[in-house]
Design a protein that fits this description.
Number of helices: 11
Number of strands: 21
Largest sheet: 10 strands, antiparallel
Structural class: alpha+beta
Radius of gyration: 23 Å
Oligomer: single chain
Low-confidence stretches: 327-336, 419-428, 434-456, 466-472
């Protein structure tokens, strides 16, 4: 998880008249919640108790007097550093306590009442699945219900995930993000707007296809996604292969169709929007894809096409940086300039930084991390289901709300969040200060780096291999 705290906002408690500062938490490039210092401190203390053998990052100290503007900025930066280290720790980031805390924080910050609703989930061919879910249910629960509605056996459900997809003005579609288990699809979709929730594969290695092809419904889902990706140009075909696929589709030979498609070079990759890279030259406009254990760029120069392939196992590390632009203060999902940079082993003893500037840089980073996780999972001999989040028993979370009230959340809650406490919450007690006086800490044209675990400014790639001369 990639955390950032780009700005703050002031609140007034209308009952007491007191004011307090909230820190806007962005996860994977999107606004997630607004939290007070005391809420993050409570999370820190509960993480310490639930994981006593783990050394947590140091938490910014308390202050006993009102903060000056410079002290508030220092606290924002310190909290950002802390939450980034938590998000990149392999144990903390998978903590059930953290997941539940973030889910509850999203509910509180969006002022969402927990209630049943009908949520539309789509297949890649536009088929709509109406899912009866709670507004505050996490992504995995919504996925399970969607799969149940189409009779997909539960053992195959976790080979898939929920994604948000946006239709562009030119008619093309863009995958904007993968919905994670610390967020409620209903709330995230409402925040981002104009995005559909779609079901897509949740793995990279095509060998997992063979498991799914044993089941007719899973096979059909694979077929639908593959056909859609071919029609959108995400999977490139030759005239010969396209004619062959068209013939198989016409005769309903879905398994044979997939067997042919799986041999295409761009099968199983994610296509991103046009981006700017500094390789082989600065300011090169290119198409970026991620898949097949690599990040690839495809650049058209005159009548020639230049391709570059960067294997994920030769990326020593990567980082995401942003340039925060000053925007109207009533918008929480401001568009940043994102850059993904990775240090690549070009040859023996020669590491070079490659930078990709794209609004989808954060999604690219998430894709690289999930690819590395899958490689490590395969190396350990674990099966696909071991990559999923498994619920474990844990002490109920004590969640402190922004107004200072608190309650306990247990896994027995139907929505996993503060729904059981909803009647105690008076949503009108907190009023956000009007935009003219909201304190914004957006730094215009200042590049800030997302920090990662162990204090490094980059994600250390645990799949990075010592490569011999013969491999270069």
């Amino acid at each position: 998880m990639h955390f950032s705290i780009p700005d703050t906002q002031d609140f007034v408690n209308e009952n007491s008249g007191s004011s307090f500062t909230g820190f806007n938490i962005h996860i994977n490039g999107t606004f997630h919640c607004c939290l007070r210092y005391k809420q993050l401190h409570s999370l820190h203390e509960q993480l310490k108790r639930s994981l006593p053998t783990l050394v947590l990052p140091s938490f910014p100290p308390k202050k006993f007097f009102p903060l000056t503007p410079s002290q508030l900025e220092e606290r924002r930066a310190s909290l950002e550093r802390y939450i980034q280290l938590v998000g990149q720790d392999p144990v903390l980031s998978k903590s059930e306590l953290l997941r539940t805390f973030l889910l509850s924080a999203q509910q509180e910050s969006s002022y969402t009442e927990s209630k049943e609703t009908s949520l539309d989930v789509y297949l890649m061919n536009g088929f709509r699945i109406a899912v009866n879910a709670y507004t505050t249910e996490c992504s995995t629960k919504v996925l399970e219900k969607a799969c149940d509605n189409i009779d997909l056996p539960r053992e195959f459900a976790y080979y898939f995930a929920l994604f948000l997809m946006r239709k562009e003005n030119d008619g093309n579609v863009t995958l904007t993000r993968k919905l994670m288990d610390f967020e409620a699809p209903y709330i995230t979709q409402r925040i981002l707007r104009e995005c559909k929730i779609v079901i897509r594969k949740n793995y990279w290695d095509p060998c997992y296809d063979l498991e799914l092809m044993r089941d007719n419904i899973a096979l059909n889902l694979l077929f639908i996604q593959t056909l859609s990706d071919i029609e959108r140009g995400w999977i490139l075909t030759t005239k010969e292969s396209r004619d062959q696929l068209t013939n198989l589709q016409a005769h309903g030979n879905k398994k044979e169709f997939l067997e042919v498609a799986r041999n295409l070079p761009s099968y199983g990759v994610i296509q991103f929007q046009k981006a700017i890279v500094d390789y082989p030259e600065a300011n090169t406009q290119t198409s970026v894809t991620i898949g097949n254990k690599e990040l690839s760029t495809r650049t058209v120069v005159g009548k020639k096409v230049q391709e570059a392939r960067f294997k994920v196992t030769r990326m020593r590390c990567w980082r995401v940086t942003t340039i925060h632009n000053d925007i109207p203060s009533d918008s929480l999902n401001n568009r940043h300039k994102w850059e993904l940079s990775f240090e690549y082993l070009m040859s023996k003893n020669c590491l070079k930084w490659i930078t990709v500037a794209s609004e989808q840089a954060m999604l690219m980073s998430v894709c690289l991390q999930s690819m590395v996780d899958e490689l490590l999972n395969q190396k350990s001999g674990a099966d696909m289901n071991n990559m999923q989040v498994h619920r474990t028993n844990y002490a109920p979370l004590s969640y402190i709300r922004r107004d200072g009230s608190s309650g306990r959340i247990s896994d027995s809650s139907s929505s996993d969040t503060i729904s059981s406490l909803q009647n105690e919450m008076d949503m009108t007690n907190q009023r956000r200060v009007e935009s003219s006086s909201v304190r914004r800490k957006i730094r215009e044209k200042i590049s800030t780096t997302v920090f990662f675990r162990s204090g490094r400014e980059s994600v250390h790639n645990e799949a990075f291999e010592g490569i011999g001369d013969d491999d270069l």
